[in-house]
Amino acid sequence: MASELHVDAIKHSGGTSAMTISSGGLVLPRIPILQVNATDTDQSASTGSGDVKVQWENVEIDTLSAWSTSNNNYTPTVAGYYLVGGALRLKMSTNVHSFFQINVRKNTVKTLQIQFQLNSDLYLNGVYPLPTGLIEMNGSSDVMDVSITSDEDMVIHDNPTKSFFFAQLVHAT
Known about the structure:
Distance between the termini: 39 Å
Oligomer: single chain
Number of helices: 0
Order of helices and strands: EEEEEEEEEEEEEEEEE
Strand content: over 45%
Largest sheet: 8 strands, antiparallel
């Protein structure tokens, strides 16, 4: 007969709970997760401004309390690789957009980029994806944020369709 191990929580060496096993047998790890959003803030992004840092109005989840609402950035206190992504609701001021770029930056350096570019001015209002990928963070001083640049003026988060940005630790280092 196989013996069974009944554990309600697995403790970290410091005595804190690293994960829990639910009554149904589901392993529930404690991992850093962030999601922020904005719905109708009407943030302006002007053509000549270069990279414009995206501002977020709500913190949906932040298990590390590492989001700065005043600086609109994330400084996770656990070192490792973070999966990031999301979407931005954009209102194009006119129907003349042929280029814009959305970036996830680490320490203000464009680390992940997604670029939308056409030969003609066809981009319209819509929800556009943020670049999705892994970013290594040192767990102390590295800062992550989202920025956008465009060939024409636009409005970020222009209506109740939610824009959002997320980060989740997928591998601690």
